[in-house]
Amino acid sequence: MEEFLSSCCGALKEKPDPAGSGFHVVLGNESCDVDSMVCALTYAYFLSKTGRSETLVVPLLNIRQSDLLLRSDNVHLLRQVGLSPDLLLFRDQLDMRALHRDGRLRLTLVDHNVLPSSDSDLEGAVVEVIDHHLLERDSFPSCPVTVETVGSCATLVTERIIQKAPEILDQQVAQLLYAAVVLDCVNMAPSAGKVTPKDSQFAAALESRFPALPLRDALFQTLQNAKFDVSGLNTEQMLLKDMKTVSGSLNVAVSVLYITLEDFLQRAGLKAELSGFCLKFGFDLLLLMTISFSESREPIRELAVFSRSAACRQQVSHYLEQARDPALNLCPVSSPRPHITAYQQGNSLASRKKLLPLVKDFVKERDGDGRLGDGRLGDMEEEEEEESRFPPTPMNSLVEGCPLDGGLPHISALDLEEKFSKMADRRGN
Predict the structure, then answer these.
(1) pLDDT, tens only, 309-319
(2) Are residues 223 and 34 in contact, defined by beta-carbon separation less than 8 angstroms?
(3) Structural contact between residues 388 and 380, judged by C-beta atoms closer than 8 angstroms
C-alpha cells in the first residue's frame, strides 16, 4: 500500500502534461469518515493491481488536506496501520475539472452514488459506483452501479477484493477494511440497527484470513473514543467535523455532533455562533443530530433544529415529526434556547443516512410550489435583521485553543465559502 500511495503522490508532483495519460480517481464522499477514506484507499489499490490500462489510479479524499485533523478517528486508524498521512491525496491537490476538460478523467464513486450539485459538471466522468446508501442515480450500461444497503461500504469493497483478487490482501489492507466495517456497524451489535448478514460474513472472512487482526471490541472502542473526542473544538469546528448538505430553495446543513444535546445547548454564546455559521456559509437551516451511548452501549440519538426563520424551523420540525419512512419518533424536549427546537429521537436506529432522504424530500416538496404545509417563510427577513447583529465567526477562531497539532490553518471554511458564495449572491440579487 505504501508503494502504491507513494507512486500516486509522485505522479501528482509532476505537472500534468495535457497530452499525457489520464487519471482514474476513486473518490469518497464529502464527509470523509473512516468508511469513505478506507474505501477510496483500498478500492483504488485493488484497481491498480487488477487493471491493465495506462491510466493512473488515484485515491482522493474528498476534503481539503488540512481538514484531516478534524477526522480524529481517521488519523487514529492511519496511525494504527502504520500509514503516514503524508502519503494521502486530497481534494485541493488535484484539479479534476481541468482533467475532465482535457478528457483525461475517469471517476469511481465510493460511499456515495451521486455527486453533489457543486460537482455536477464532473458527472460525465463517472464510470463506476460502489455504495451502501439509498440509490439516487440512474443506471447506465457504461457505468456499473453496485448499491446495497449494508452497514458499511467497506463490506462491498471487501467482497469485491475477495472475489476478484484475494492475493492483494495483506495485514494492513485487511485491517483498514475490518476497522471500517466494525466502526460503521457499531461493533456488529444488532441492537444498533446497522449490521447486516453480509457485513458479518465479510468481517468474519477477514478475521479468519488474518487472525492477528486487533480484537473487535478493543478496535471498536479505540476508534469510537477517537471519533467522539471533540475536546478543544469550537462550535464551528464541531459543525464542520461531520457535516453533509442539501441544496434547493433552502440550503440545509446536517451535522452529526458527538456530544449530548444537553451539553451542546449549554455552550456559551450558542445563538450568536449558530447564526454566524449560517450567515457565513449561506445556510437557511441547520439540523443537528447528536449521538451518545448509554452505559450498556445502546445508541442515544437526539435532534435539534435551528433556523433564523421561525417559519422555516416550524415547517421542517412538523415535517420530521410526521415522517413515516422512517418514523423518527421525535419527542419534544425543553430547550434552554428558544430559537432551537429540540427532540429526543425515539427511533435510535434512524441514523443520518436515513434522515438525509427525508430532508431532501422536504426541500423538493417546498421547491415544488414555494410552500410546505400551512407555513411560509414570510418572517425570514424580520429574523435575519435581528440576527444580523451577530458577526460571522472570525477565521482565527478556527485555530485558537485547538490542540490538534498546531491548529487548522486552512480549515474547510475556505472551501465552504467558495461553494456557497454563488448561492449567497443569488439571494442578494
Answers:
(1) 999 999 999 99
(2) yes
(3) no
